[in-house]
Amino acid sequence: MPSYAIVGASRGLGLAWLQFLSKDPNNTVIGLVRDVKKTKQTLVEEKIENVHIFRGDMADKKSLEAAATSAAEVLPSGLDVIIINGVYVTEQTNKMTVSDLAAQPDLLYKDMHTSLDVNVLGSIYAVNAFLPLILKGAQKKIIFISSGHADIELPVPADVNDMVTYATIKGAVNMIAAKYAAELKSKDVKVLSMSPGLVATSMNNNPSGEELAYFMKLLGNFKRIFPYWRATPLTPDESVGHQFNIIENLTMADTGKFLSHWGNKTWL
Ligand SMILES: NC(=O)c1ccc[n+]([C@@H]2O[C@H](COP(=O)([O-])OP(=O)(O)OC[C@H]3O[C@@H](n4cnc5c(N)ncnc54)[C@H](OP(=O)(O)O)[C@@H]3O)[C@@H](O)[C@H]2O)c1
């Protein structure tokens, strides 16, 4: 009976994970969200059943520890897979270059520190809270959801000079994954940092006219770098299907790596 915990499961890819995993009645599926009541309502509307929802805020270490304690009650054989999916990201700074941000030091400080707190420290605290359950589980897999933006070889050829905080902090998440992998390899724990592809979620939806022009330029740049890309975002369900294949086939041979939903360095 495989078991999965999704941290940051209220919407977008996190919700798609709940939908996907709960279709198999053999799975035990746990979702950590900031607003339990709202997510439970969403689950009813989306007809998603067979999921345990607990409060877990990546900005609140204690809530993650409490969630792990609650989860332990429905995980007598431990936890097979934890997926750290939630993200703090703000539209306000996404389209700013490093120089733009440097010109607004208060904004830069707040953006970097909040992103560090939620996305890096929050990931660490989530993994740490669930680690005893992972060590008790059969599969022993820890998945950090990263982004192709964290590939240091992408910005120059793809002309992506913005997404500064997001890319920087996802790069830090990749390193945390590698460090956990080194720490836990003797315990047979497989750790992966994975990009889900470009996916139609709230991160990319409902662009204004100006945003659409920006987005089309970005897509053109990506298409130049990845000529085989179909040039449209994946649906959340498609992305989760690809990610699931990678997780299912994850072995110690790939522990600590940063891979795409294709299992390589093709981010789109
Ligand atoms: N979509 C893409 O194209 C794309 C590309 C590359 C990587 N990714 C990565 O894929 C993951 C999912 O992205 P998405 O597109 O599904 O994003 P999304 O639609 O914006 O959803 C973000 C999720 O993160 C949760 N979250 C935010 N702050 C949190 C916190 N402090 N504690 C717990 N959960 C929190 C949100 O919960 P609330 O409802 O409470 O706000 C929501 O469930 C992220 O790690 C993102 O960086 C996405």
Automatic annotation (TrEMBL):
InterPro entries documented for this protein: NAD(P)-bd_dom_sf, SDR_enzymes, SDR_fam
Domain of life: Eukaryota
Family annotation (Gene3D superfamilies): NAD(P)-binding Rossmann-like Domain
Molecular function in Gene Ontology: oxidoreductase activity, acting on the CH-OH group of donors, NAD or NADP as acceptor
Protein name, entry field: NAD(P)-binding protein
